[in-house]
Amino acid sequence: MVVTRFAPSPTGYLHIGGLRTALFNWLWAKKNSGKFRLRIEDTDLSRNKQEAVEAIIKAFNWTGLNYDDEVVFQSERFDIYKKYINELLEKGLAYKCYLTKEELDKIREAKMKGEEPPIDIRKYRDFKGELDKPYVIRFKTPLEGKICFEDGVKGLQSVDAKEIEDFVIARSDGTPTYNFVVVIDDYEMGMTDIIRGDDHLRNTFKQILVYKAFGWDVPKFYHVPMIHNEKGAKMSKRDGAVDVMEYKREGYLPEALLNFLVRLGWSYGDQEIFSIDEMINLFDPKDINKAPSRFNKEKLDWLNSHYIKNSPNSRLEKLLRDYGVDIINHDKKEILIDELKERVKTIKEMAEEIEKILNTPSEYNEKAVKKFIKDEVIENLKEFTIFIKDKDPKLPPEWHDIMNEFLEIKGLKPKMLMPPLRIAMVGDTKGIDLSALLSVLGKEEVIKRINKLIAMNEIF
Ligand code: GLU
Question: Which of the following is catalytic: 91, 111, 146, 237?
Answer without folding.
Answer: 237
